[in-house]
Amino acid sequence: MKLQFSCLFLMLFMILSCQENKEQRLVENVKNAKKQEIIFDNINKGWNFNAKPINPASEGLVNMWKEWRLFLSELNRKPKSTIGAFQKKAKELSKKAADLNNNIPMAYNKPEVKSRIAVLISKINSLNLFINLDEIPDEKVVVLVTEINIQMISLQSQLDEIVRKNTIPKEEGESDLIQMLDTSRAIPNRQILPKN
């Protein structure tokens, strides 16, 4: 009799504990859903990239530089449905940003442009990293979007600066002076040392 009573008590305890676990899981799921919705709203509000060329130099590159055009068009398209869509967009942006190092037009293939592209790639990769975490820091994602916009302006300003420098006419003899300063064109110094 005691054995039956203890088995009945144990089964009743298990049934009640299972009910409590289901209720706790339901409450946790509702909390997580609300939290995800808040994170989605914050990211959706802050996901505003400035993908329009700000000067004639960057506008001209849209026609010449395929990777730049694809990157700007990718920035222009904003995901709308879920956090997963933002995560896919961040991965795609990382790929397009990495492609910017390919086929840079000769006039812009300079260290100052490459360094700005490297910083832009780094910021976009950080965005991709943070948005794909389990606990998404939505404030950090919004800050990174702002930083990416700043880097885009910096890159486009550098492109404009290169165009502006190229339009400055050279003085007479300046090109000869530049060639003389080029160490790769120097005549090697071959002094014959006496043998001991």
Helices and strands, with pairings:
Blueprint: H1 2-46, H2 56-64, H3 66-76, H4 83-98, H5 111-131, H6 138-167, H7 174-181
What does this structure look like?
71% of the residues lie in helices and 0% in strands. It has helices spanning 2-46, 56-64, 66-76, 83-98, 111-131, 138-167, 174-181. Helix 1 (2-46) packs parallel to helix 6 (138-167). It is elongated and about 115 Å long. The mean pLDDT is 82.
Short description:
The protein has 196 residues and is mainly α. The chain contains 7 helices and no strands. The chain starts with a helix and ends in a 15-residue tail after the last helix.
Biggest sheet details: none
* Helix run count: 7
Order of helices and strands: HHHHHHH
Secondary structure category? mainly alpha
- Global morphology: elongated
Note the gap between the termini.
115 Å
Helical proportion? over 70%
Percent of residues in beta strands: under 5%
What is the residue-averaged pLDDT?
82
Number of strands: 0
Backbone CA Rg: 30 Å
pLDDT < 50 stretches: none
